Amino acid sequence: MSNNQNHNESLKTVPTSTDDFIKGLWRENPVFVQVLGMCPVLAVSNTAENALAMGVATAFVLLMSNILVSMLRNFIPKEVRIASYILIIATFVTITDYVIQAISVDLHKSLGAFISLIVVNCLILSRAEAFASKNTVGKSIMDALGMGIGFIIALFSLGAVREILGNGAFFGFSLFPDGFQEWVIMILPAGGFFTLAAWLLVFNLIKQKRAQS
User: Fold this and answer.
1) How confident is the model at residue 55 (pLDDT cuts 50, 70, 90)?
2) What residues pair up with 169 in beta bridges, in sequence order?
C-alpha cells in the first residue's frame, strides 16, 4: 500500500465537525442510544408542547455551557472542574428559567421544577466533561448542536405520541371526532415508560436493518 493510500485512509478516520454533529442525531442519540436525561424525558413529555419546550431549554443550556467550558478549559483547575461546570450550567439554567417564565406563565407552571433540574441533567454534565473540556469551541458547538437537536427530536417524539393517544389532540388541537376514547394511561407516568420502550424498539430495529443492508 502506498504512502498516498495510507494518508487518504487516515484522513477518512479523522473525526470532522460534521461527525460531531451527526453522531448526536443518530449514532449516539442521547435518549434512544445513551438513555441519558430520563427524568425530564419521562416526566414532562405528556404533551407535545411541554416536550418541545423542555427539549429546546435543555439544548440551549447544553450549547451555552459547552461553549463556555471549552473557552475556559485551560484556565479551570482540574481539582475544581466539576464544581465549575455545575456553576456554569446553573447560570444558564437560571437564565432559561426566567425567559420561560417571561414568555408563558402557564408553560412555566407545566414544566414546574424540571426546569431547575436541568442543572443535574447528566447529558449536559457528561458533554462538558467528556467533550467540551478537551476540544475547541467550534467542535464543542457542533457536538452540543447535534446532541441538543437529537434530544429535542427524541423528547418531541414521545410527547407527540403521548398527547395524540392520551388526549386525542396535537398541540391542543383535537384530532378525532366525538366518541374517541382517550388512552388516559398515556399521559400518566406509566405511559411515558410504554412510549419510550416502543420508540427504543423502533430505533433499534431500524439500526439493525441498516446494519444488515
Assistant:
1) very high
2) 174
- In the numeric block, which cell numbers belong to residue 159? 410527547
Instruction: List, as one string, the DSSP characters of 66-130.
Output: HHHHHHHTTTS-GGGHHHHHHHHHHHHHHHHHHHHHHH-HHHHHHHGGGTGGGGG-HHHHHHHHH
Spatial contact of 143 and 149, defined as CB atoms under 8 Å apart: no
Q: Please give the backbone phi and psi of residue 173, each rounded to the nearest 5 degrees, phi first.
A: -95, 125
pLDDT digits (tens, 9 = 90+) for 157-203: 999 999 999 999 999 888 888 888 889 899 998 999 999 999 999 99
185 neighbors 191 (Cβ within 8 angstroms): yes
Q: What gap in Å lies between CA 70 and CA 165, rounded to an integer?
A: 42
**What is the Cα–Cα distance from 81 to 201, expressed in whole angstroms?**
37
